Amino acid sequence: MAKTIRHERITKLAAVSAATVVATIALAACSTSTPEAGPTTYATTTVSAAASSSLPASSTAPASSCDVNPSTAPVPTVEPYGTVPEVGRISVTLNGIPSGTITPGSAPTEVDITLCNNSAVDYPKVGVVLVLEHCSCAPNPMSIPKGTVERFDEATGGWIQMEHPAAGTGMDYLGAYSNVQELPKGKTVTLRYRIALDASMTSGEGGVEAVAVTPEPLVQIGKADLPFTV
């Protein structure tokens, strides 16, 4: 009888040990599966990095950055209203009209002009011209639109209306420059303007043109265009 009881106890102990081994193996299997969750976290990080890298460069690059040209050249001499050679050209950029559309008769739309003198020339005086380009929206044979161009005046904090808002049939509009200032190599400046089209304009394609000029002689040293739909 005693042998039978002892035999039953041994059998139970063996069963408990086997169950413990099975449970240990199962736990080990679960613990090895935990790292598999890692790639999901890394994938999320990768997607976030990719999304941030798709942002415009201007959101990360300093707005005031403007490379200084290591070369030095005198102020170029060209015919009046002409364009200086490559060595004397500065960078001009136009930003604004996020929708790409201008509605005739609507409130003025602001645009920014940024000048960066990355040329080899130190300019003692530089002016800026902003005009409405010829537009198929203008109901006249010359395609000259009617509208307004205003520049922001830092001194007064107000807007000043330009007398000649649109380009005509020649280059005379270059004489309507303003915002005259010194622009040595490596200097950058951003100027604020705003434009509007007269309510009499129709549907069509147009744009604005920004030109950097030297007053004397009156020549072009850089330009940019910004198209829009009416």
Overall average residue pLDDT: 79
Question: Number of folding domains?
Answer: 2
CATH topology grouping of the largest domain: Immunoglobulin-like
**Sheet/helix structural class:** alpha+beta
Q: What's the helical proportion of residues?
A: 10-25%
Q: What is the ordering of alpha helices and beta strands?
A: HHEEEEEEEEE
Number of helices: 2
CATH class identity of the largest domain: Mainly Beta
Termini separation comes to 107 Å
Low-confidence stretches: 1-63
- Number of strand elements: 9
Tell me what portion of residues adopts beta-strand conformation: 25-35%
For the largest sheet, list the strands in their spatial order. Answer: 1-2-7-4-5
Specify the CATH architecture of the largest domain: Sandwich
Report the major sheet: 5 strands, antiparallel
Overall geometry comes to: globular
From the alpha carbons, calculate the radius of gyration and give it in angstroms: 35 Å
Question: What's the SSE blueprint?
Answer:
Elements: H1 2-33, H2 38-53, E1 91-96, E2 109-116, E3 123-132, E4 147-153, E5 158-161, E6 178-183, E7 188-197, E8 205-214, E9 219-229
Antiparallel strand pairs: 1-2, 2-7, 3-6, 3-8, 4-5, 4-7, 8-9
Describe the structure.
The chain starts with a helix and ends with a strand. It is built from two helices and nine strands, in the order H-H-E-E-E-E-E-E-E-E-E. The protein has 230 residues and is of the alpha+beta class.
